[in-house]
Structure formats: structure tokens, C-alpha cells
Amino acid sequence: MTQQHPCPHTLGPATAPLWPGYADISPSAVKIHHLLAQRGEEVHNDHVALRTYNLAPINLQALAAPLLEMGYRPSGEYHFDVKRLDARSYSKPGWPRVFISELRVQDMPQNVQDTLNALVEQCPNRALTIEDLAAGRPWAPVSWETYQNLAQASQYAAWVAAFGLRANHFTVSVNHLKTFDTPVLANLNAWLQTQGFTLNTRGGAIKGDPQCGLEQSSTMADHIEVDFADGVHAIPSCYCEFALRHPGPDGTPFDGFVTQSANRIFESTAASS
Questions:
Q1: pLDDT at 5 over 50
Q2: For 115-134, what is the mean pLDDT?
């Protein structure tokens, strides 16, 4: 059951509905935002990320449709061949960005394809709404064995099977933080570690650099208990990300994402750090 988690973010109408379901399964993120607020920070959200399969009626295009109706526009296209993922980002001035990725189901082993197609066949065949993007799992719980088999082939495939359509992470805009000395992201990471949070250090704690326009870091996902068809098991859920955007030659902050960095950020939902 969804609990009441006041949202400390500055959010637009498209992403605010995604916060409660995310906060329900992201206790570390909720704690981080409250700790930042106690420091006197007004937390702004840089972007929200969603995961899905490239199967209608829940493919990337279907998830993006309600965002486009609200005035978002495509801002980038990305490909992750090793993870068999494709992604697009969407922006609207003054609103948090949205990053949507989808698994190339046709590139997975046949048994995985069969499992994922069977899950998606349970989804209502209709246009999605913003509320649908926060609704969670639109299919019956899978078995623990099915989850483990999916995870062996693709941790991403297993995550979506377990959690469905919901925000995978919210991202603190480091540009808006006022109480950390320069270098801000490095000092924020050090503070997070003193508070007991585990960072994703794959490829380094900070992914990216000023030259590429974007620096990112993230916690490792919380492990929470999830109801499977045959019992309850603790698995990685969601994480909290931090993004520092640098201005380009025209002085405008970089608006997109960096594929190499995002590839490492995906691993924040891995079973271990």
C-alpha cells in the first residue's frame, strides 16, 4: 500500500505523480532528501527515469506519448548494445527531464522472450496516461525462479518484471545545492558516505566530467521485500541519483545525457556494489 511521503522536490505536473510509488520502495532516497532539507537545501529534481520493454502497449513510444501531450519534446537518443537497451530523453523548459529506456526483447534468449511476451500480454491494450507510469506492475507476480532466470540474462529485464511501470530513480539537481563547497559533487558524495549511504562506484563514484557537460553519481539501490507468486524475497529496488550540468559554449547547461555514464548508472540496481 502506498504510504504518504511528502515530496521534497520541485516538480512539474508530469513527474510529481511518480514520486509516491518511488518513495514507497526507496527509503534511502526519502532519507537523503530529508537530510538535505535539514541542511537548508531546497531540492530540485534534474530528471526522472523509467524502464520498460520494447513491446506494445508499454514500449518507449507508448510511455512517451502522455509526456509529449504535456509539452515535452525529444532531447536525445541513446543506445546500449551490451545491455540490449535503447533510450530517449525528453525535456520541457522549467520541468524535470524524463529519461525512458526499453529492453530489446528480440535480442534476448528465446525463453526470456517468451516470459516477457507473456507478461505484456496481460497489459490493457490502450493508450497510457501519466498515472499509468506510476501504477507499478501491470501483470501478475512472477515466480521467484522466473525472476532469477530473467536476472541471469538481464538484470534490467528482471527489475521491470518485478516492479513494472514506475520511476526507477529521481535525480537531485546538484546545480541547485547551496551548502556544499566546490567541488560540489565530490563533497556531496563524501557527505553521503558519512551518512551511511553506499555509492555506485562502477567506473568511479563520479561518472562523466565537465568536458562532456554532465557529471553524475548515484547510490546503490535499496533492497526491499517483494511479493512473488510463490513467496516474498528481498531484491534491489530503486536508487537516488545526483546530476551536475555544465554550460556549453553558448552558456546553456547541457540538456542531454552521456551514454557511457548512463551505462554505469544502470548498474545501480545490481545485486551488489
A1: yes
A2: 97
Q: Report, at the CATH architecture level, how domain 16-269 is classified.
A: Roll (3.10)
Burial, 217: exposed, middle or buried (Cβ in 10 Å; 0-12, 13-18, 19+)?
Answer: buried
Name the burial class of residue 131, with classes exposed (0-12), middle (13-18) and buried (19+) by CB atoms within 10 angstroms of its CB: exposed
Of 35, 36, 45, 34, residue with least CA distance to 11: 45
How much is the pTM? 0.95
Closest CA to 257 of 269, 241, 270, 243: 243
- Residues 176, 99: Cα–Cα separation, whole Å: 20
